[in-house]
Design brief:
Elements lengths: L36 H5 L2 E4 L13 H18 L5 E9 L2 E8 L3 H20 L1 H21 L11 H5 L6 H44 L5 H6 L10 H15 L12 H8 L3 H17 L20 H15 L8 H18 L3 H49 L14 H17 L5 H19 L7 E3 L8 H7 L3 H8 L8 E3 L1 E4 L2 E8 L14 E4 L7 H4 L4 E4 L7 H8 L4 E3 L4 H4 L5 E5 L4 E4 L2
Parallel strand pairs: 7-8, 8-9, 9-10
Antiparallel strand pairs: 1-3, 1-4, 2-3, 5-12, 6-10, 7-11, 11-12
Helix pairs in contact: 2-6, 4-6, 4-13, 6-13, 6-14, 6-16, 8-10, 8-11
Pfam families: PEP-utilizers
Protein name: PEP-utilising protein mobile region
InterPro entries: PEP-util_enz_mobile_dom, PEP_Utilizing_Enz, Phosphohistidine_dom_sf
């Protein structure tokens, strides 16, 4: 490790005023601790704003706990990815920081490489069949989750329960239901990570081949050979466009006026036959395609479009106006595929031997199959499943509200999932004997205190990284998804070029554009984005696709060449520079900027 450059120690970062005691919201094993201080200060931790863009409510930590168990197991124990054991995480001031655990022993790397080649090779050879089975398993998890029920606790158990002669009462249905929901998430996390980890490994293998075979090739040209995909994650946007066309066809386009919220519009549509026809079509398309949320799925407050389309309703209105003007809303996938095939053919011609061409053909064929699933899987796991998961827990939250434990259904998310288990035991004990539960006297004040703390933490500006800059980062997911490399980290720590008007990042989507910046920090600000602006944000989500038809370019703090922001901007032909680390801190809304998606340079022109 290099001791020359380092970010603040996690033990040096101060608690925001008014957020004292924030640590009590999380279990001790996810906090930086004096017991582990020596090892924690010697490592590099970076803020995972890509998956957890806001401070975590206590229950939401379950997504980090479950997914990082799964990522670690799939990397280290299941497929044995040679240089990487997986991801460790900590919470600081409510924000999630992660660290990649490398394999440093060359002999161990070699031994793991042999295991990986055999195990991943089986998956690669049978990818279409395995991935189709994978999607079915996720659908089965969703169906099982929907089947869980949290029945009301009756004054007297009904006759049919007694005469079933099972000796099992309603309390067991509630308890089993909660445990099934928790186990389902941990299982889904494993299923999710099964596909993702070796997907990144396949791309990295192709990437390394290209860098060796074509020393001058850019990252942009490599990704240009595998794009032009039609994945499920883009389907919600296509359904939105179809609804825009139907609004015009049905003669109700005038009901969709900028500035009106969706509840107001929907209420007016119910007053006419044409409006009711459109609403029926909305319902038909919404399951499953509007079970997509605007925040990535791993925090409960990012609601699915099916529950609250507010963040993207303005985009629907914009689509309707464009249809009225006769504009074509379709992506030109065929043109993208022709360009992809042209680039591929040109580089293939540069290879000198049949052996190299055969290896290239095999790798490009594999990575295109795998690349598809890396983005396609997100709809099924991160959105459809996770939106169902949070809503199922809200049913349990209603049971707690009915018994006075919480004032609002979502108050339950201010407890860690193990605390909810304790509260549920308290509820069932008091109900069973008609006694007084402690919960109604205890939890409301705890929830209010935690809400106040989280409000303070949301105003905190988390450092992009903590600890020592390493000499190498071996985990392919860290490099490809988050865009974290030693060079990127050093750039974050290095004073800006010139007068601070130059920012550097990953060239994620080609092209150069100029325009006014629109800096947003959360999904709630999406509706402020105007036509022709350049979106500047910490990170984007694939579910923001409707917004990409309005903006001219994209700049993010976080993200690599295989991040979801990179994939979506390439599919929409929008120049993008990702992983700048500091764009949202250095650029202001309204400033004119230039985005060079080929060189990875952002220039502040004002």
């Amino acid at each position: 490790m290099s001791g020359e450059l380092r970010f603040p120690s996690p033990f040096e970062v101060e608690t925001p005023l008014g957020a004292e005691g924030w640590q009590e919201m999380y279990p001790k094993h996810v906090l930086f601790s004096e017991e582990r201080r020596e090892s924690e200060e010697a490592r590099l931790w970076f803020y995972n704003g890509m998956h957890f863009p806001e401070p975590m409510t206590p229950f939401d930590i379950i997504t980090a706990e479950s997914f990082y168990v799964a990522i670690g197991e799939m990397s280290a124990r299941f497929f044995c990815i040679p240089p990487a054991m997986g991801i460790d995480f900590r919470v600081l001031n409510g924000y999630v920081y992660i660290n990649s655990i490398p394999v440093l022993d060359p002999q161990e790397v070699q031994e793991r490489a042999q295991l990986f080649q055999r195990r991943a090779g089986h998956y690669y050879a049978n990818w279409e069949r395995i991935y189709e089975g994978w999607r079915e398993r996720v659908k089965q998890e969703i169906a099982a989750l929907r089947a869980v029920s949290f029945p009301e606790l009756p004054d007297i158990e009904p006759d049919e329960l007694v005469f079933a002669e099972r000796g099992i009462g309603t309390s067991m249905s509630v308890l089993e239901g909660y445990n099934r929901v928790i186990e389902s998430l941990f299982r889904l996390a494993q299923i999710h990570s099964e596909i993702v980890m070796i997907g990144f490994a396949a791309y990295l293998t192709f990437y390394d081949f290209c860098k060796q075979a074509f020393p001058e090739i850019s990252d942009q040209q490599i990704t240009g050979m595998i794009g032009a995909i039609d994945v499920s994650m883009l389907r919600p946007d296509e359904e939105f466009k179809a609804l825009a066309r139907r609004a015009v066809e049905l003669g109700i386009a005038d009901k969709f006026v900028e500035g009106r919220d969706w509840q107001e519009v929907f209420a007016e549509l119910r007053q006419s036959d044409a409006g009711q026809a459109w609403l029926r079509e909305w319902d038909e398309r919404s399951d499953p395609w509007f079970y997509v949320n605007s925040g990535g799925g791993l925090q409960h407050h990012f609601r699915a479009w099916v529950d609250d389309p507010s963040p993207i309703f303005g985009a629907l209105i914009d689509y309707i106006r464009r249809v009225e003007r006769g504009e074509n809303l379709e992506r030109d996938i065929e043109a993208q595929r022709q360009e992809r095939d042209r680039i591929t053919a040109e580089y293939r011609e540069l290879l000198r031997t049949d052996e190299d061409r055969k290896a290239f053909d095999e790798l490009i064929g594999l990575v295109r199959k795998v690349y598809f699933s890396i983005e396609d899987h997100r709809f099924f796991a991160d959105h459809w499943y996770m939106s169902t998961f949070w809503n199922k827990l809200r049913e349990l939250g209603q049971l707690f509200v009915d018994h006075g434990f919480f004032r609002e259904v979502d108050d339950m998310f201010y407890l860690h999932w193990t605390e909810v288990s304790q509260a549920l035991t308290d509820l069932l004990l008091s109900w069973s004997v008609g006694g007084e539960a402690l919960g109604p006297r205890h939890w409301p004040s705890v929830v209010e205190r935690r809400k106040a703390i989280l409000a303070k933490l949301r105003k905190f500006n988390p450092p992009p990284a903590l600890g020592v800059v390493p000499e190498t980062i071996a985990d392919p997911a860290i490099v490809m998804l988050w865009g974290i490399t030693p060079d990127r980290l050093r750039a974050w720590l290095t004073p800006a070029d010139g007068d601070g008007n130059i920012l550097r990042g990953f060239p994620a989507s080609s092209g150069t554009v100029e325009g006014p910046a629109r800096v947003i920090s959360s999904v709630n600000e999406l509706e402020t984005v105007q036509d022709g602006e350049i979106l500047v944000c910490p990170v984007t989500e694939p579910s923001w696709a409707p917004i990409f038809t309005k903006v001219r370019g994209t700049v993010t703090d976080i993200g690599g060449v295989m991040s979801h922001a990179a994939i979506v901007t390439r599919e929409y032909n929008i120049p993008a520079v990702l992983g700048t680390g500091v764009a949202t801190k250095r650029i202001r809304t309204g400033q004119r900027i230039r985005v060079d998606g080929d060189q990875g340079i952002v220039t502040i022109l004002d």
